[in-house]
Amino acid sequence: MSFNERFGPAIYDLLGGPFEKKPLIRKQRQKLLATSEGRVLEVGAGTGFNLPHYPAGVDDLTITDGMDGMLRRAEKRAANTGRHVTATRASVEELPFEDGSFDTVVASLLLCSVDDQSRALAEIRRVLRPAGRYLFLEHVRSTDPKIAHSQDRYERLWGKVAMGCHPNRETLPRIESAFAVDELEQGVMPSGPKIVRPYVLGRATTPV
User: Fold this and answer.
1) Is 22 helix (H, G, I), strand (E, B) or coil?
2) Closest CA to 37 of 135, 124, 127
3) Phi and psi (nearest 5°) for 22?
């Protein structure tokens, strides 16, 4: 068992927990999930920080992650919120679901750490039905040259601290190349390290 697999879930909760208590973070997650409907898949769910924020009408929710430890914590968080989930260990780059299986796919703070963004997006698109919704929240490369320089400079160090996260990725153009983006919000989180504050939040659809 690797270090990340053994200790990663606990570190993830330890580092992420304080941010989840901030009103803006809670508001952003609620905004992300507000239009989720039908059969929903959340990829890279981690320990389940999104779970308390899904609308009451979502009653068919599947979550995936690449680590069993993450999924165990997510299932516990789901139980504590009274929500039923189906948990499946899987990489977003190789999802074990048939084409067009879901009405909505959710991903938050995920594309910064995958090995291949294009492949991950292709898999998300594959498992969505035609005109299905892809809801995303990602931190991205800053448009401020000074912060972007810091993102490049500290990329390797941050990746070791944050389980492979690359804070300097040009993620939005990748999403736009795979989906039709219907709604988009871009901004800067008010807290946390400056290199991970720039974000994009939006809704995209698959071509009909």
Assistant:
1) coil
2) 135
3) -75, 135
- Distance between CA 191 and CA 197 in Å, rounded? 7
Total structural domains in the chain?
1
Task: Report how far residue 171's alpha carbon sits from residue 146's, in angstroms, rounded to the nearest whole number.
Answer: 19
- 125 and 206 Cβ atoms separated by less than 8 Å: yes
Q: Which residues are registered as beta bridge partners of 185? A: 201
CB contact burial 72-98 (16+ within 10 A = b; e otherwise): ebbbebbeeeebebebeebbbbebebe
What tens digit of pLDDT does each residue of 24-50 get? 888 999 999 999 999 999 999 999 999
Contact 135, 36 (CB under 8 A): yes
CATH of the domain at 200: 3.40.50.150
68 is in which domain, residue-wise? 3-205
Number of residues that make up the chain: 208
Tens-digit pLDDT profile for residues 69-115: 999 999 999 999 999 999 999 999 999 999 999 999 999 999 999 99
pLDDT tens sequence across 131-184: 999 999 999 999 999 999 999 999 999 998 888 999 999 999 999 999 999 999
Write the single-letter amino acid at 16.
Answer: G
